[in-house]
Predict the 3D structure of the following.
Amino acid sequence: MLTGQASTLPETNSPIGFLLVLAIALPAGGVALSLLLGGRGAQRLAMATMPLGVAVALVVAGNIWRSGRSLTYLVGGWHPPLGIALRADGLSAVMLLTTAVVIGAVCLYARGSFGLPAGADERRAPLVFWIMLMGVWSGLNAVWLAGDLFSLYVALELLTFSAVPLVSLDGSAATLEAALRYLLFALIGSVLYLLGTALLYGGYGTLDLVLLSHVIKPEPTAFIAASLMTAGLLAKTALFPLHLWLPPAHAGAPAGGSALLSALVVKGSFILTVRLWFEAMPSLLHLGTSQLLGALGAAAVLFGSVLALRQARLKLMIAYSTIAQIGYLFFLFPLASAPAEATSMFGDDWNGIAWTGGMMQLVAHATAKAAMFMAAGLIAEALGHDRIAEFAGLGRALPVTMLAFGLGGMSLMGLPPSGGFVAKAMLLVAAMAEGQWWWAVVILVGGLLAAGYMFRVFAPALAAVDVTMRRRVVVPQSRQAVVLALAICAMLLGLMPLRPSQLLEVGRPASVTALTR
Amino acid sequence: MSDAALYGLCSAVLVGVGLYGTIVQPQPLQKILAFNIVGSGTFLLFGVIARRGAAADMGGDPVPQAMVITGLVVAFSATALAVALLLRLHDEAGRADDAPTPPATDDETSGC
């Protein structure tokens, strides 16, 4: 059913649209070349790709910021629905930047754990790590930029296949098991997503997000497809109650890998869920659906935080806290889609504020959590273990690392001035102004629980003890500085004004605004 | 019953059987097989859609067929990766079930 809908959408290539292809192709090219060059070459390629990728992200974001318009690139000059369009709106720009910053930091950090000193024998783990790092980057950029549901499926699969090997780099039975469980959850998720895609194509004859939003109607085909796709995506995002795979996988990976998985990989399927509901099928985002997704998020916040409080090992604690922080993201659905009568009372763009708040939570969590996982990695390297109960004197032994860990924790708790504070404050006021006070209660309780599990680490680490801690290895200052710099990024986000962000306004789904007017 | 409806129902049955398997079967290998059954059902559905949406002078809509080819490649690589992980787990642990590994000794670190 190839109708001539291309005529309704006179899309043309933006002047710098080719950069969107480059954002995906650069790291993908790195992967292909690494397979030829081997271990040492893979590391050099990753370190060379990193600044180029950061530059591409900066130019794309800067262009969207200045011009206030989305970028489009029609691959091969073919128009949708037959061709594939890459599109970068404000949300894509923010995600491209976040990805570039976190991956840049992980590259610098991982030189310490996966770098090969001159003369050393090449091993398998570093080769796999550098290849998968570039694979994850390429997959993520494809998720941020792809404009149709099938390309997004391929992008998600590229992301999953790059992420799973990161879990089992040490090759132990426990991490292999975690990787296998992660892969099984992800596979069921992707096949459900593909099934929904087939139904949508059968019903509407297009998978392009923009074209689909024009033709989709609230009818059984669309409902069933949306339910299948959402269920699949939630399994990949590890939203409660489909979170079972996350803690062993994220805690078992090496610290640099954990940072990628927790900060970025789970966000790929989340952004896809957002695009699916807000952009492709806004007419289906009834109060019921958005409240259900919000309720699952609330359960994740409470459940993840309580379990984080009970963990004896630092990396597992951080992994459970990821489950809780993912929960906050899903408050976006009820709070950014409130009906007009709920938002008119205080006469402001509350849906827009919730939209910015939700995305801020995503960016703040990405930077803070990556910093915390890498700090935990340094602690484990220095001590040879990560048992929280034996952290006495750690504050004196690793002051810079503990500072970075603490700054990340501040963002999780939502203390000012931090990115987490701005995000949670915006969601909180939006919840109150829209009369959905129950989300505000969960946001506050979640912050309190986060303070609880952070306190469990800091109480022994900063206690005044006389014993000097025995360190197994001395951690280089440069790696501590990278972690601290990333944590400071999470802090600087706290200087954002509490209003809809200018960059995120570009190409903001009409559904977020239309409902307020 | 039209051909499209018949094949559509077949695909629904395959998806149902596969989903049941992924949830109920405890063994990873059985889960991987069940995933492939869901996949077959989905690909059959793409075929039905290609046939049903065919324009007057064509045997089928080529777009879903292109998607099926991509989907098959993805499903094949996914299965290969899962089986490779399972074999490696079998080598390491001497078994290939889903039971949790007993907690490691105190000396074990969490990696770096």
